[in-house]
Amino acid sequence: MIDRGFVADKYTFAGLLTGLCSSGRIREAVKVYRGLVRDHSGLDSHIITVIINGLIKSGKFHKAVSLIKKTASEKSQLDDVSYTIAISGLLTGGQVGEAYTLFSQMKEVGLAPSKQTYNQILSGFCKRSDVCMVKEILLEMLDANTEVDHYNLSLMKNLLYRSHRHSPSLLTLLTNISNSGILPREAYNEMINELVHHVNVRSVHAGTFNNLDVCTSSSNETQELVVAVG
Fold it and tell me: Do residues 5 and 104 share a domain?
């Protein structure tokens, strides 16, 4: 093609990288990408997104993480789509801390995280049972008026059962922001009703509560939970 005088554009390179990744020819894809970086200054963010996405879909998380780290240091080369795909890849690879670093960097360069990106980060910390970071992300989402999706509300419900020490403070925060519009209203009400039910079960059947498929807490924490629910 080039020999005949045609000039390849970004879509041609994107198609080539996608094809190589889809066919499992990862080494060749990375080699082509490195050649593009070497020969083209200010490489289009679309090309970077394609190679990151291709690596992730091929299960090459370590290669994707390595590439993400390199491109993240060159902030102008990543747009919001690139960041979102990169963050998703890091979370899939279990790199929650690095995903959050990239999430913070995204905001520092003036790119507003989307609802999808916020919820990806939130789910990462929910799965990690990091209640402090879950609360921090919730407050950021409140400030950004970004809705929590149903999946994350379900994760937080499970987290409330697992985290004996921090569950009252998380539930208090959820209760305080329940009228803000960022929580799915019907799902939130169902969660509260379920929590109240289990608190009542514990109060009535304290001796047999351990047989239920629910995490237990101390009597003081149970009282705090009741107060938080209202």
Answer: yes
56 touches 64 (CB < 8 A): yes
Q: How far is CA 73 from CA 7, 76, 228, in A?
A: 29, 9, 43
What are the CB-based long-range contacts (under 8 Å, 24+) for 106-114?
Answer: 106/78, 106/80, 109/75, 111/79, 111/80, 111/83, 112/80, 112/144, 113/80, 113/83, 113/84, 113/144, 113/146, 114/80, 114/84
Buried b / exposed e over 32-56, threshold 16 CB at 10 Å, is bbeebbeeeeebbbebbbbbbbbbb
Residue 89 forms part of a structural domain = yes
Other residues' Cβ atoms within 10 Å of the Cβ of residue 90: 26
Residues 31, 82 share a domain: yes
Q: Is this model's pTM higher than 0.90 or not?
A: no
Count: domains in the chain:
2
For residue 85, the enclosing domain spans 1-112
Cβ atoms 119, 87 nearer than 8 A: no
Question: Per residue of the chain (230 residues), what is the pLDDT tens digit?
Answer: 444 443 456 667 778 888 888 788 888 888 888 777 776 656 667 787 888 888 877 777 777 777 776 776 665 567 888 888 888 888 888 889 888 988 998 898 788 999 999 999 999 999 999 999 999 999 999 999 999 999 999 999 999 887 766 678 888 999 999 999 999 999 999 988 888 776 554 544 444 444 333 333 333 443 444 444 44
